[in-house]
Amino acid sequence: MKRPLMIVIGFFFLIVLVIPSLIVLPFSSSSKSEAQTEKKPQQKAMTVSKAQDLAVPVSVYRSATQKVDKLQLRDYLIGVVASEMPADFNIEALKAQALTARTYIVRRLVDKDDLGDSAGNAVVGDTTAYQVFKSNDELKKVWGKDYAWKIKKIEKAVDDTADQIITYKDEPITASFFSTSNGQTENAEDYWSNPIPYLKSVSSPWDIGTPKYKQTISKPVTTVQEKLGVTLNAEDGPIGTNKKLTEGKQIASIVIGGKTFTGRDVREKLGLASADFTMERKGDMILITTKGNGHGVGMSQYGANGMAEDGKTDEQIVKHYYKGVKIEKAEPFLNKMTAKK
């Protein structure tokens, strides 16, 4: 009697434990397979996008050697982002910078801009007149022992945005950027001659209190008079009257020594950090205090980093500083360029 009872009990456990496992197993395997299948297209897309950057040639005129370096787009972008924005900035800010850098060069490629025969028909230079670019070897010298982690972070910013540019009405934008705002950015027409619909003044409170937000310098009275072509009053005190401001709170116009200047005029003639300035005479010296650093049009780099530290993504940063834009693939624009050749 005991042996048949044991057989029955064993059979019962077989039904309860083994059979449900056999039923679940095919579904578990299927789920795992589906999850792996879902990941593969994303990984493939990332590879294709990076390959697109690697496939695009960029010729860069090197000002120091007066020669042209022929690079892959990815290498060019790494050299630009590394030169234009501190590597210790938040990765989302660096990605926003990578988007502006790629947009800038794609626009030049599509428009077939070059520097002429004297520069070997290079499409771009390596100075602030274009985008600052440093080679890998130059970055090693600049960064020293920090090179490994900094270059890895810059590469990630470039690769995470591979094949992406900023567009407005289906065209690459003029991706203007600068260091630090005075708390607001400028309308394009308030610094340059023409309005640009996506380059409008926006609030940028993240800049306030950052390293380049405010500075005071002094210049000899004789230097200021010579640079501006004016004669200043001998008395101590504030300089400049009839001051008018732009929407971005920089100086639109100001009268100094009886002559009317734009804020940009004064900034460029005196080499000031921005066109938001005050001037005061003290004896034989002029004290000049500025807020912000740069022309103020487009994306503020310190503002972008502040937004990133607040949890904003590269796309949110870009769409804050450039109004009404989209982030789209660069490939169709580059294909058009190739088709025209």
UniProtKB/TrEMBL annotation:
Q: What's a Pfam family this protein contains? A: SpoIID
User: What GO cellular-component annotations does this UniProt entry give?
Assistant: outer membrane-bounded periplasmic space
InterPro entries named in the record:
Bact_Sporulation_Assoc, SpoIID/LytB, SpoIID/LytB_N, Spore_II_D_firmicutes
Q: Which GO terms describe its biological process?
A: sporulation resulting in formation of a cellular spore
Domain Sporulation stage II protein D amidase enhancer LytB N-terminal intervals? 62-168
Domain of life of the organism in this record?
A: Bacteria
Q: What is this protein called?
A: Stage II sporulation protein D
According to its UniProt entry, this protein's organism is Pullulanibacillus pueri
